[in-house]
Amino acid sequence: MRALACAALWGALSCGAGPPAPGGPVARWPDYGGGKQGLSFSPLTQITPQNVARLRPAWIFRHGDVADGSGAESRTSFQARPIVPDDTLYFCTGFDHVVALDPESGAQRWRFDPKLRTRKLGGPYPLVCRGVAWWRDARRGGGVCAERIFIGTKDSELIALDAETGAPCADFGVAGRVALREGLGEAPAWEYYVTSPPLVIGDVVVVGALVQDNLRVDAPGGVVRAYDARSGALRWAWDPVPPGWRERERQRVQQPGAQRFASGTPNVWSILSGDPARGLVFAPTGNPSPDLFNAVRRGLDYYGSSVVALSARTGQVAWRFQTVHRDVWDYDVPAQPVLFQIPGVGGGRPGVAQITKMGFLFLLDRESGAPLYPVEERPVPQSGAPGELLSPTQPFPTHPAPLLPLSLQPEQAFGFTPLDRADCRSKLAAFRNEGIFTPPSLGGSIVYPGNAGGPNWGGISVDPQRGTAFVNMMRAPAVATLVPRAEAGKLDFESAAYPEELYPMRGAPYAVRRTPLLSNFGAPCVPPPWGTLSAVDLKSGRKRWEVTLGTTRDQAPWPLWFNNGAPNLGGTLATASGLVFIGATTDQFFRAFDAESGAELWRQRIPYTANATPISYRLRPDSRQFVVIAAGGHGWSAPGDTLIAYALPERRPAVRPIPGR
Questions:
Q1: CA 110 to chain CA centroid, nearest Å
Q2: How far apart are CA 124 and CA 75, in angstroms?
Q3: How far is CA 426 from the centre of its chain?
Q4: Number of C-alpha atoms within 13 angstroms, CB side, residue 163?
């Protein structure tokens, strides 16, 4: 089946169409989000709504670094977003290989294997590497490591490579590597590691890390650190503890040298953005530990579920904005903060757009963190589990208003038949269900939007010319149940398999069970669409359009292929010509939509689900515009290894796939 799918891809090339029109803008893709501001927007215009239907694969690359989790290695998911900072395309794989390709032919130029010590990690999630970073040393005119590629690894290392050859930079750290676990205390390899690209700003490399959720109260700290891009020396470390916390908690701090950074603090597992002109780094933070019970966090919520602006020079906090107070829903800020400045939005001031799992889009002043439009503190459900400490209110944006429904009542239950609809209705009535921010409970509580979103790490793209943000979301409610410690010993944490999640939350009075809210037929209990793509007018704060994203194909057998939308992880690419590209879904399609109307203009079958975010580039005025997507599966689909570049056809023989090795 995989071979047939690939054959269909490259065999679909058309040789009879005329070549793309010459002229127009030229642009590369130097950073994860297109630039350090994270707009995920391309100024290119060669591919348009009028000709996108002619888009065909230009080259296909198979890197081969993939595992299905059945042996001694964890399951992988190829979620990388490549960068094209010069005339080479760079990306990483699930096992942190770094690969350099010719951007126009897909031919491999070099490959680096970090020789990971850790290839088997715990938890329900597949191994991913979402990107790498590039830096040019302004002090060097050329030579070895004058340009560098940085990657954070599963071995908790930051590695610097020569961008020309892929060889480690000997003058960086120890043989090109810097250890990232120093000062964190003891932790198994699978509890702390890097999944997102570092951010290079000026001559420092800034990196956070993933910390496994809900395992223990004293989990490794979520410190964010900056290293000298030349030497690898530590420039600064931001330990996300509240002001004055160490003085108040001095008795909890271990002796110097044992553990420098506080345990259980919010981590920054998602993508950083930066403003070089203002010297600021913008960090989206997760929850303190544990995610679903606040009372044992020792006051460490101050920076939790927030966007935090840090000085790129010192790491000092410039400002913070908290999107959820005392978060007990795993609503950590999942996506890259997007930096914009658009006439008519917030008085034209420089802004930060932060999407959240709840479908809340906060528009903030970039220099102060103050909301550009009113944010209301509204009362939310109380009376959590015995001993819990909840916030009486939560912040709700008004411009835009929340982009998702905030409650799911029994009368709204979905089912394909009266039988499964009745099952969903009874479940919605049986669990605690008071709308968004219903706290987890001993009897089980509906979490809607679910802990996966709503939106997730794919984030948003912003077209500054149209003043529009494009956001893909899913509607996937969950049930969170706290299990008293006395009963937790009966739970088999090791054997729990996604989508059922069991976590011990050691050090808390409860363990937790979390499951998707599904009918006895296995369908979501929420009415379709289960996945959407929306365009939000940032000037008016209103949705311009919303369309269904995804189908049940590849998850259900034919003829049960319905256009009901699908859960989706990955993000959008917007182009100046008026297109929005996205994979992300549980079906094996890559799509393009009209930015003005939301109409689906193009759909291409691909060999794996594309749970990544696309890019676009054009190297010269006489060359073609390429759109590139990683198709590599996810936890819900087969793992893959395919990078596909699309372009308008030119008059030459059809291409053939390029072997990865």
A1: 27
A2: 10
A3: 34
A4: 23
Residue 79: exposed, middle, or buried by beta-carbon count in 10 A (0-12, 13-18, 19+)?
buried
pLDDT (tens digit per residue) in 620-634: 999 999 999 999 999
CA distance 469 to 41: 10
583 close to 570: Cβ distance less than 8 angstroms: yes
pLDDT at 242 over 80: yes
Are the beta carbons of 391 and 377 closer than 8 angstroms?
A: no
The 10 Å Cβ neighbour count of residue 270 is 23
The arrangement of strands across the sheet holding 478-484 comes to 445-447, 478-484, 510-516, 501-503
Token pair of 522 as six digits: 């296995």
Helix (H) or strand (E) holding 248: helix 245-248
Give SS3 for 412: helix
Average pLDDT, the chain: 92
Q: What does 308-360 look like in DSSP terms, one character per residue? A: EEEETTT--EEEEEESSSS--S-----S--EEE--TTSGGG--EEEEE-TTS-
pLDDT in tens, 22-53: 668 999 999 999 999 999 999 999 999 999 99
CA distance 239 to 223: 5
Q: Six-digit token pair at 188?
A: 């198994």
Residue 14 has pLDDT above 50, yes or no: no
- Cβ–Cβ under 8 Å, residues 575 and 42: yes
Whole-number Å distance between alpha carbons of 530 and 566:
5
Tell how strand 157-162 and strand 177-179 pair up.
Answer: antiparallel
End-to-end CA distance of the chain: 21
Residue 509 CB-half CA count within 13 A: 9
E-strand stretches of 214-335: 224-228, 234-238, 273-275, 280-284, 306-311, 317-322
Q: Is the pLDDT of residue 653 over 70?
A: no
Handedness of CA 251, 256, 259, 261 (dihedral sign): positive
pLDDT digits (tens, 9 = 90+) for 420-463: 999 999 999 999 999 999 999 999 999 999 999 999 999 999 99
Residues in the chain: 661
pLDDT for 259 equals: 67
Q: Is 550 left (phi over 0), alpha (psi -120 to 50) or beta?
A: left
Which of 645, 571, 649, 643 has its CA nearest to residue 613? 571
Question: Given strand 108-112, what is the order of strands in its sheet?
Answer: 89-92, 98-101, 108-112
Distance CA 323, CA 332 (A): 9
Instruction: Give the residue numbers marked as catalytic.
Output: 330
Task: Give burial (CB, 10 Å; 0-12/13-18/19+) of 169.
Answer: buried
Query: Phi and psi (nearest 5°) for 558?
Result: -65, 140
- Whether the Cβ atoms of residue 629 and residue 118 lie closer than 8 Å to each other: no
Using alpha carbons only, how large is the chain's radius of gyration in Å? 24
Confidence band, pLDDT 50/70/90 cuts, at residue 190: confident
Question: Do the Cβ atoms of 24 and 648 come closer than 8 Å?
Answer: no
- Distance in angstroms (rounded) separating the CA atoms of residues 481 and 494: 18
Tell me how far apart the alpha carbons of residues 56 and 69 are, in angstroms, rounded to a whole number.
32
